[in-house]
Design goal:
This protein is 36% helix and 14% strand. By secondary structure, it is of the alpha/beta class. The chain has 2 domains: 137 residues, Aspartate/ornithine carbamoyltransferase (Rossmann fold, 3-Layer(aba) Sandwich), CATH 3.40.50.1370; 155 residues, Rossmann fold. The longest helix is centred in the first third of the chain and has 18 residues. The radius of gyration is 19 Å and the shape is globular. The model has no long low-confidence stretch (mean pLDDT 89).
């Protein structure tokens, strides 16, 4: 697989090799001082990023806009479809074509799985998937990998438990595949109705270690190096009663963490509801706020690579 990044779409983590992912992570590490505002970087001066979001977002949209700004570029965007021509019936193809006219790269978040790949067919300029329904969220996966890599020193061989909504959670889908590429040992912790889809489990078998499925968090808390907690996503449930049956099923608090390894890190793609108690924030295990920040250097790296500012 080619290491050429310039002009490339970022649609799925499956489009990247381990070598390519590590190149992105190493580039992101160099971006950290600029991401913190400690160093000035003007490598994307004159470039424009368009953010087209059909679903709500805080971290993804703002971190992309921050990333572009930290590189000297500008961001334009749409965060409310009701205040755009979509309200008038404009198609996705036409929306993407218009964004292409105004910007050098577009980040798209859409409620339909596969929308970003479809959009890439309409655009001659790079499309970045900012999340497509219950499908993929590749840049979230890359910042998650960056967090594990910088916090633990390596990704290979780490024991990682993914907890919560594994059926609808696009972050969990992308991350499980990526971790398996690196040879991490995976534990999928969810009730049967929210357990990881079979096709995602099969994808996770690409590595040497087969994932283990369980419904009991207590069974794995003392074994793992990384606890990746996800929100039960009410908006993904077609049946409200199904949501009520599983809401609040897993809760991480300081009592649970007494059984954990001393160097366990707790991650969460955010936003959280009540699955991580605020008391965990002050422990040495909590890494979810650092994880959210890591979206800036990782997205800086991706923008710089695909717009040809770095190799």
């Amino acid at each position: 697989m080619s290491m050429k990044f310039e002009g490339r779409d970022i649609l799925s983590i499956k489009d990247f090799s381990v070598k390519e992912i590590m190149h992105i992570l190493k580039t992101a590490k160099k971006m950290v001082p600029a991401a913190k505002g400690e160093r000035r970087d003007e490598s994307l001066r004159g470039k424009v990023l368009a953010t087209i979001f059909f679903e709500p977002s805080t971290r993804t949209r703002l971190s992309f806009e921050s990333a572009m700004s930290r590189l000297g570029g500008r961001a334009i965007g749409m965060a409310d479809p009701e205040a755009s021509s979509l309200k008038k019936g404009e198609t996705l193809a036409d929306t993407i074509k218009m964004a292409e006219s105004y910007a050098d790269v577009t980040v798209l978040r859409h409620h339909h799985m596969g929308a970003a790949r479809l959009a890439a067919n309409f655009s001659a300029k790079p499309i970045i998937n900012g999340g497509d329904g219950a499908g993929q969220h590749p840049t979230q996966t890359m910042l998650d990998l960056f967090t594990i890599w910088t916090e633990k020193g390596k990704i290979e061989g780490q024991k990682v438990a993914l907890v919560g909504d594994l059926k609808y959670g696009r972050t969990a889908h992308s991350l499980s595949y990526a971790l398996s590429l690196f040879g991490a040992k995976l534990y999928f912790v969810a009730p049967p109705t929210l357990q990881m889809p079979k096709e995602v489990v099969d994808d996770a078998k690409v590595g040497k270690v087969r994932p283990k499925l369980t419904g009991d968090l207590n069974d794995v808390i003392g074994k793992v190096d990384v606890l990746y907690v996800t929100r039960i996503q009410k908006e993904r449930f077609p049946d409200p009663q199904e949501y009520q049956r599983v809401a609040g099923l897993y809760k991480v608090d300081v009592g649970l963490l007494e059984e954990a390894k001393k160097d366990l890190i707790v991650m969460h793609p955010l936003p959280r509801v009540n699955e991580i108690h605020p008391s965990v924030d002050g422990t040495h295990h909590a890494r979810y706020f650092e994880q959210a920040f890591n979206g800036v250097p990782v997205r800086m790296a991706l923008l710089a690579l695909i717009l040809g500012a770095v190799e």
